[in-house]
Amino acid sequence: MPKCSAKCGNKAILKRPKTGDALCKECFFDAFETEIHYTITKCTLFKPNMTVAIAASGGKDSTVLAYVLKLLNKKYNYGLKLVLLSIDEGITGYRDDSLNTVKQNRDDYEMPLKILSYKDLYGWTMDEIVEKVGRKNNCTFCGVFRRQALDRGAALLKVDCIATGHNADDIAETVLMNVLRGDLARLKRCTAIITGNGSGDGIPRVKPLKYTFEKEIVMYAYFRKLLYFSTECVFAPNAYRGHARMLLKDLEKIDPTIIMNIIYSGESIRVSENTSLPSLTNCTNCGYVSSQQLCKACVLLEGLNRGLPRLGIGKSSRVKQILTEEKYNNLNSNSCVEAKNCLCKNLKDNSVNLK
Ligand SMILES: Nc1ncnc2c1ncn2[C@@H]1O[C@H](COP(=O)(O)OP(=O)(O)OP(=O)(O)O)[C@@H](O)[C@H]1O
Questions:
Q1: Ordered structural domains, the chain, with CATH
Q2: Where does the chain bind ATP (predicted)?
Q3: I need a labelling partner for 17 at 20 to 30 A (CA). Which of 126, 133, 232, 296 fits?
């Protein structure tokens, strides 16, 4: 093995995927952590005295994020209060096991942990949802509900922002996906390292691992002997993202810097002025952030509660049609399902006007 290229005199034990440098363990830790510190300070992700909820799934990314944030907070005196926030989607054989890992991290890292479940928030577990909707569209439900569940958890904990474990590969994949779909509106915003301004468009979310390669996260967790959960979700993966992921992995074999190049391209691209993002408002039913009068979570939930699980999947005009038909049926028959967040009260007093 060659000598460590950081000139510390030790033997190198690894080759950094991001730079190709041969490094010893200690110099790799230092480079890895210093780069994340640089991202945090350069992009002003945090301010002193903030309370930060680390979105913790028990997987490698959020586990490494929790470990490194704790370490950097102490080393550089960020002055942050760190808490763990986990969402239990109710997926047997997957989330129950990964939450055990998060509980162990809570003890090891001495951070408070809050777990919120879909069952408590929405009345449904993902296991129950998949029984109704099948394995094709279940990722839509899971993603929409998780996004809102994290906002709800953050509001409950009164934190200033949420930090997620999205890494460089995730961001590059999302850029590729939006290019392949021609989704310019999403392309415009998908590389943002901070989203949400704390007022109209939800609690701020930050991605401290935005420039950190997935392969290095795995290496770091391995050499630091961090405990994380590595099983894939038992339900069907997001097929479209899977294609982008495979393409990226193939490109990375040719040249690992492609990951950074895709992110830089996404950051630098100028999208036409005519491509505007939907303006954000608050859902008239639940009050959480939404681009429509009714948020996607409420529409999906309404579909589940009414036995119309496809409501909200696909075009919004179809949703409007179904809800309008339902409105008249319910007004005539009073047969709506009594559910926690039922929209009938809104439909009856005509306060809901889907775009
Ligand atoms: N159930 C959950 N509870 C809390 N946060 C979550 C949950 N699922 C995902 N997240 C957050 O969203 C980020 C991206 O989620 P994704 O599904 O891509 O996970 P991942 O790439 O497997 O990451 P990880 O290795 O942290 O699980 C995670 O790093 C984590 O911060």
A1: 29-268 (3.40.50.620), 281-348 (no CATH)
A2: 55-57, 61, 87, 165, 170
A3: 232
